[in-house]
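Researcher: Structure prediction, please.
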Amino acid sequence: MTTAVSGERAAELRGFRKVQRLAYECAEAVAARLEPGVTEREAARMQREWLRERGVRDWFHLPFAWFGDRTAFVNFRLPLQFFPTHRRLEPGMPFILDMAPVHDGFTADIGYSGSLGPNPVQDKLMDDLEVHRELILREVRERRPLRAIYEDVDRLMVRQGYANRHRAYPFGVIAHKVDRVKQRRWSPKVLGFGTQSLKGLAADALHGHREGWSPLWSPYRFSDHPPQPGLWAVEPHLGFRGTGAKFEEILVVTDSEDPEESAFWLDDDLPHVRRWAEAK
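Model: Predicted structure follows.
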């Protein structure tokens, strides 16, 4: 985090930062255990088990794993195609791990890109994602409409020679709001999504509709409004010839008139950020 926050808000952000770091720690631990022959379903189960051993009992959504050309969502047309399959990992193959645990009522939603051995294409995609993180923060601080920022990200991808793969997500979202979730002893799931989290997103959607904003950051007209204060899980996703890469992390938006305090990434000590820093 790049700005000072005090009191109750600071404690709340520490809670979100803690679970986000936990999720990235899980991604790194599972990535280190991947080997040829492991399936997407097995990788997703490894994430679930690792997090459950550390107290996670609820989810915004259950873990995903995508291997090979599925990292670029090649030929994805239906929501069920996002769910883990029996696709097996092979040497040199790219992968993405995506998980959204809820812990102590705090939510994270992260994406981790890697490969089983060297993959120069995905390495290049990861390198080129750095400027997207910078562009998104800069334009949110400028209070440009979310839809306009989305279009600027799209144009940057085109200049880089890549395809926009977050457009394949439901509603084409590049981000969505995340909130505190009420802790339950048992929380049912619908199509892999926790019902408590879905209730919160639906409440945000209803509230936002009345006030002219949406908790979904998309290329459509309902996102044609300035950034709404809150926490946003942001995930620019690049694709190139059957290889995909993305990061996903929380962006904090406030109503402060100070540019640096008006928006900032929740945490700069994350795997992709460290990667870019070490390369300089």
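Model: The mean pLDDT is 93.
Researcher: Thanks, that helps.
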